[in-house]
Amino acid sequence: MADFDVDLFVIGGGSGGVRAARIAAGYGARVMIAEEYRFGGTCVIRGCVPKKLMVYASHIHRDIEDAAGFGWTIPSATFDWPTFIANKDREIARLEGIYTANVEKSGANIVKARAVFEDPHTLRLSTGETVTAKYVLIATGGAPNHGPAFPGIEHVISSNEVFHLPQLPKRIVIQGGGYIALEFACIFAGFGSDVTVVYRGDNILRGFDEDVRAHVRKEMEKQGITILTGCTVNKIDKHGHDFTAHLSNGSSIAADQVMFAIGRHPNVVNLGLDKAGVNVKHAHGGIAVNEFSQTNVPHIYAVGDVTNHINLTPVAIREGHAFADTVFGKRPVKVDHSNIPTAVFTQPEVGTVGMTEAEARAAFSHVDVYKTDFKPIKATLSGSDSRVLMKLIVDASTDIVVGCHVVGHEAAELIQVLGICVKMKATKSDFDATIAVHPSAAEELVTMRTPTARYVREAAE
After folding, report:
1. Does residue 438 carry a catalytic annotation?
2. pTM above the 0.90 mark?
3. Which of 239, 241, 282, 438 is catalytic?
């Protein structure tokens, strides 16, 4: 057998790569992990974590507004963007240090350099060295995609740059209708910015339940966010420090910043995949893998966003762990990608797991829908007109709850627990048999007894 420098070489120090490296090293493997930017990947450095800190910061403004209804008189509050950004950067640096320390404690060797394939078993580092590996894991994640070029596209910022703006934009145009675009629209609206969302589709949050899509849009518009659908930005002019975004519908918008969040592409460029013989799925640009995260080259694997399968940090972590268990723990593990709970940190939050109503009606002959839309108890005194949406989708033939959808305060916390219920195939009778926690918004999940809609598919003759 060939003598390799390491048993495992991991390209990418994000969540998936780090988890794989740590677990593999724990099994006794000689592991080297290379990261060209900062350990922690998109999620920790310029994604989920700093974004959630921004969500908290922007929501404080609404908490202050709500206080008056509860008898609190708060002097005029001011917000300092540079102070917040500095504090956020300090926390991200601390987390990066923890990621690095955890990898080192596991026994893996860290290389802060770019790594590319020279051949199927050889990696060349940007430092000039080469390393041979028995197994290679590609975990390079994804990067923002701005779409086709147009005049002025060089002025567009992405979710990379938005965390490091020198000052808070008073006016911002955000193109996109998914997680990132809507989360930042709510963040900047919370900070007091004038926000316009531009989206090519007929409504935001494509792929989500239709009631969720409608509810979130209505709640965002209540906050003063302008949502323009059915159009795109096709030109940007710069005037000193200001910009004019020209839209495909013929209108234009003045802004201090124009941000695009229209999708991300797998980070596969210039990795030397051709030299390694690794296949890429040309339809979506991700690395093709099987159920064990194995590419067409038997000793090369890929996990996380670089496969462009389900681009969520916890999925990358689970895939990285399963890879290490399979290859180095000698315990084959397949990741179950069904019924993955997810959250959108808009304001209010979205939490969802399982099927949408449309998906259930296409899959089952009998479907019951339970839905409620109500004013939460806090809003009775705060004066807020925000409303909560809760929806359960049930396969009426088996009584199994196949979908849960929540829009409201702490929806992300709720959906994590509801995800367990759906994964366990809990029935509507199980929900009904659970005594409510009162007073809480969540009690609605176990007190909806009468279907708001019932669908029966006619049998084919």
Report:
1. yes
2. yes
3. 438
